[in-house]
Amino acid sequence: MKYLLPIMLLFTFSVPCFAVEGMFPLNDIHTLDLHQHGFEISADAIYNPDGISLIDGICKVNGCTGSFISDDGLILTNHHCAFRTVQMASTNGHDYITSGYVASNRTEEFPAAGYAVRITKWYRDVTADVLSAVTETMRMAERTRAIDKRRNEIITRVEHDYPGHRAEIAEMFIGKTYVLFVYIYLKDVRLVYAPPRSIGEFGGEIDNWMWPRHSGDFSLMRAYVAPDGTPADYAPTNVPYHPKTRLTIQPDGVNTGDLVFLIGYPGRTYRHQTSDFPAYEQEVRMPFVVDWYQWQIDMMNAMGQSDRTIALKHASRIKSLSNTMKNYRGKLKGINREHLIARRRKEEAALQKYIMDDANRAAQYGTVQTELADIYSNVRTHTDRTMILHYLNKNVTLLNIAYTLYEAAVERQKPDVERKADYTERNFGQTKQKLEQSLHDFYQPTDQQIFNALIAKATTLLPDQHIAPIDSIMEAYPSIDEFLDTIYHNTTLTNADTVRTLFIKTPEQLTQCSDPFVQLARHLYPLYAAIDNESKSRKGATDQLYAKLYDVKAEFLKQKFIPDANGTLRLTFGQINGYSPNDAVWCQPITTVTGILEKDTGQEPFNSPSRLLDLIHEKKFGKYVQPKLSSVPCCILYDTDTTGGNSGSPVFNAHGELVGLNFDRTYEATINDYAWSENYSRSIGVDIRYILWILDEYEDVDYLLTEMGVN
Known about the structure:
With 711 residues, the protein is α+β, with helices and mostly antiparallel strands. Helices cover 44% and strands 14% of the residues. The strands form two sheets. Strands 2, 3, 4, 5, 6, 7, 8, 9, 10, 11 and 12 form an eleven-stranded antiparallel beta sheet that branches. Strands 1-14-13-17-18-19-16-15 form an eight-stranded antiparallel beta sheet.
């Protein structure tokens, strides 16, 4: 099916040969002069809505990207994207995080509970339909709810018409354009191969977001369907999914200066927001998160130091927290280094002068930037209180379970199209599954310490920001510890069967429930409801203001620009290119396995398997050696435009052949969420030759190489 998207590219651009800013939506691919930039593949070969093209071999794996590399649904993605499944498969007796996981046949492939694969099938513009739900007399919160309801109505209708598919509506430009995407939705995903952590995460958090890099950050998964080919939940009788196409692997890899392009599902960027947003992020929110995450990481590392079972429970959570924390530190550094806020404010001042120079423009747009600034200023006044409430719900496992139970009971009294997304019929099964999975990693001493720390933070809030239920706790108990000992002793929410039973209760029935966490969640609910209403009101206001800002900015610049990333399929291109992160320092864009020898210390996180070190020492490089480097290339660096969600994106050469696997950015490129820099924005991938060498020489899994078409 072919659908035109008339407003996807709201502003155009001029492009040099390489190093182009832009995460281009699907229909914009055909507006680019690919041949001018060095492509040896046509736009239709990349994306053809009327035929088969590269994007049919690319999928979304939860929050990451993946590539189909066989006709039997074999998916190449990152080790860190599959890490949750590796953790779920691991026990103290079978520590697959440490040793790696290899399924010698398909019966041994481990079910990846909670994972789903999406393949973009088609899309169309639904802006008019969505915005028709809005009236001029609506209050801001009503406006947001009306848009959410209309989006749910469209999604419900489409999923009814296309069984086994998933529909999502993406906001391309805030308050202005909305696009419906329809995905093939596969729910049976299994782990096929994961390297040992000492390969997949070589360098750990020390090397994370850094270059040079020597991580083999890749894993293999497989998508399954019912015997009749329809999407289905996990069942032993399911069969491998057959994608419309498989990507072609080029074992020769790439060289410095080669053009490369990526296709993937980048998460969120904020490049079109006014300067007040990154200023708020820099000055308020990110410092809070960095400190809070660091405290949790240190606490959980100490908890698991002498007990591997506890360490396994914490592994995925620590990995996620550490990744975000270091990312934020990089962003904070990058915002200062690039003088981002000052630069934005200078641009906004020029725009404001243009607006005020004309009476008609001044009447229509004169207060837009000021009103946006006022909104962000208001957010600052109660950030600490909002953040504490947010992390009480997010980080205290049993409180999160209790609150989800109570909120689900309230939401499921509403018509399906008016519910929050997690509680609609299409998502409710996943919500319950996610909650049950959280008990898999539950460790009471950790949960209790986190709860303690957040209550302590709440007691330091200014009087007008106090959290009433917390105040009541402090009045009723002589100490935080006594309250926590009591509530954890009397709860039954650590039992999955109890949680399942409570999911079918009404709000009235939960009011009578004796579980102390449920009662605390019930008393906290009005506070979260008020925050949610305020958030919807704020979004309703910013939607209208940003829609106006786009219009006048387009008029002022006489240009167009690309919508911010939003989890939908995008293309970006550049070249294999080094960079200078600091004065007098130049980094080459290709590392080799020789660097593993140089970094290895025998201690985590630089503790390579002895067999891998032997292969490197003995130069058993086989057909994967790069003659000029006299070694096997390990990781590659390129100046494409990426962000979170591009983890697992295939890296293609000019011919559209798979030559690498994206997994990270440099520390300096964490600022990509707010701005792209030709000098510093670099992304990092695993060279395909290292992946193949590991599978061939280290693991000797010929059957997988044969399936991938490279043996």
